[in-house]
């Protein structure tokens, strides 16, 4: 692999690109009330529209991201960005809720470009630097997730909510121009597999590689327990302190810990077995919930628990990406698609089940649910998928 095509400035550009694009799927959350007022609709209807973005993202993971293995990845990224611009502009001009709902679905589908960029970065990176490169690009992804809600909420407090989407479209258009000049050309020039045949190979890859199944399960568990917490935090803050969404948003900024740690975690994954780092992620996430359970009634305990939980999530995310991107570079996009689908489904179910347990049993129910899920993760990692799966990934 020619590492000259992936210097530090290129990795930084990929990280910034991931941040700008992934932000699209989260812009709606702080402005749902403004949209409901604009279209004179109940909040529940806008909540359902917001789910369309997540649904579109899931379809994009399954049906678009694997295309990176059968076509020029650089061109796929550029085309997705064009479609993302169109989707954002459609949301900006939407005259009614039906058009806006369609735009929301399309925004989710076209926001999967970072999930093409991530395996592309892993493909271009020298093998002994793959973890570090992926850690840096994932830092950008985390920044986008972290700041998107804050940016959207602040902009909508000063400007009409539609302007959020116009500004998003302008940012992506500027990004497109930069990437057209700076994004490395895909060194793979010929592909012999068509789309239908490629999609049919995804279940075969899942069956063939236990390490891929192990990573998907681990991602499901770690992102699931992360979302169990974040989906119920605002209710807990209201109950415990009389606080609301603003304070929950400020606490979310503690996620910068994961942003700062991701490159270090990547270097650790290069130096040690990624499987070891993933196990540490499970331990840290469990420790976080022990802190929440025992000391969550105190703000200091809550803050410490959040930092530990975010570190545990990122240990798993970076290390899992490192090992699945080392299985077979010619199927890296399909591996990423499977992993991120498991990751996403864990997060979605974690949010849903966390809310249910909060209604049924309060904070004790939330923490108990997370611990049960983590025990399943420990069993899967240390018992069901033994050490031999790592050797298949050549780690």
TrEMBL record:
Provenance organism: Lactiplantibacillus plantarum
UniProt GO cellular component terms: plasma membrane
UniProt domain Major facilitator superfamily (MFS) profile: residue ranges: 10-389
Main location, first listed in the record: membrane
UniProt GO molecular function: transmembrane transporter activity
Swiss-Prot/TrEMBL keywords: Membrane, Transmembrane, Transmembrane helix, Transport
Protein name: Putative transporter
Membrane topology note: Multi-pass membrane protein
